[in-house]
Amino acid sequence: MKKALLVLDMQNVCVGKNPAPIFKYNKEALILNVNKEIKSRKHDLVVYIRSVLSRHSILSFLSPIKVIEGSPEANLVDDLEIVSEHILSKVRGNAFTNPQLLKLLQEHQIEEVEVVGLDGGGCVSLTALGAIDNGFKVTINTQAVGTMFEKRQAKLFAKLKQKGAKFI
Length: 168
Prior knowledge:
With 168 residues, this protein is of the alpha/beta class. It has helices at residues 12-15, 27-39, 58-62, 99-107, 123-133, 150-162, and strands at 3-8, 45-51, 87-90, 112-118, 137-146, 166-167. A six-stranded parallel β-sheet has the order 3-2-1-4-5-6. Residues 56-64 have low confidence and may be disordered.
């Protein structure tokens, strides 16, 4: 069974040297655990997914955090292991809202995805739900997931367990 690792939102704005003040992650531990999973070489494909806004989007004007495509804040954090050229962007929590992700996974005949990164109470869980909806088996590596939204994460993880997601 072919497996992909989806690395979500490991960007300067969240875990870089000067993250936005609202992000209170233990960034050193998170980066270490995400890198350990990337280096494990147990995945047939590694895909990095960044949250960005268009400069001309209404969301970019309303959002309290400005992560505009092309800005340093939108870049993947320097300490992150980069082992593939597959770096996609998304503007919503569920990375499957970018049709390129599904196309890439299908091209590589992926059947299972493991999801790591940020945030367990948002993009990680929403992307995992999107993966299940698209027919993939899902694993969430909790050691390599950060969250600021613990109550929301608990609810979403419970929903994922009901839908058959595996947690390690």
